[in-house]
């Protein structure tokens, strides 16, 4: 039923892709997904998964900014409940140094 909203469970979300569980759709299917705080985003199915699909997000500049704000200002990315700040700083320092 075209145009009928279908709820899905978002498993991962980045600035450019979204993986969900729910009804599967054929590769190349184009549609729209409504993301809280971002609005309606045009999407294309780029891969099928065991229980859903991976979508390519076709965000407008304002939507991309809203996703950035959601990830980095409003409490982290989906799936991250908490972070160990000491480990994060150590890892960052290691990556920025010349030491292995």
Key structural traits:
100 residues, 5-stranded antiparallel sheet, elongated, 24% helix, alpha+beta, 5 strands
Order of helices and strands: EEEEEHH
- What profile does the largest beta sheet have? 5 strands, antiparallel
**Which geometry do the CA atoms define?**
elongated
Share of helix among residues? 10-25%
**What share of residues are in beta strands?**
25-35%
Counting DSSP H or I runs of 4 or more residues, the number of helices is 2
Mean of residue pLDDT values: 78
Radius of gyration: 17 Å
Strand order of the largest sheet: 1-2-5-4-3
From the N-terminal CA to the C-terminal CA, the straight-line distance is 55 Å
Describe the structure.
This protein has 100 residues and is of the alpha+beta class. The protein is built from 2 helices and 5 strands; from the N terminus they run βββββαα. It has a 5-stranded antiparallel β-sheet with strand order 1-2-5-4-3, with no helix packed on it. β4 (39-48) and β5 (52-58) form a beta hairpin. The longest helix has 12 residues, at 61-72. It is elongated and about 50 Å long. The protein starts with 8 loop residues before the first strand and ends with a helix.
Give the helices and strands, then pairings.
Elements: E1 9-13, E2 17-21, E3 30-35, E4 39-48, E5 52-58, H1 61-72, H2 85-96
Antiparallel strand pairs: 1-2, 2-5, 3-4, 4-5
In short:
The protein is an alpha+beta fold. The chain has helices spanning 61-72, 85-96, and strands at 9-13, 17-21, 30-35, 39-48, 52-58.
């Amino acid at each position: 039923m075209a145009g009928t909203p279908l709820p899905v469970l978002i498993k991962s979300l980045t600035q450019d892709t979204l993986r969900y569980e729910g009804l599967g759709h054929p590769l190349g299917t184009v549609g729209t997904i409504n993301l809280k705080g971002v609005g309606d985003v045009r999407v294309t199915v780029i891969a099928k998964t065991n229980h859903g699909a991976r979508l390519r997000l076709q965000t407008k500049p304002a939507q991309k900014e809203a996703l950035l704000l959601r990830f980095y200002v409003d409490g982290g990315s989906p799936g991250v409940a908490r972070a160990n700040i000491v480990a994060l700083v150590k890892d960052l320092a290691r990556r920025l140094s010349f030491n292995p």
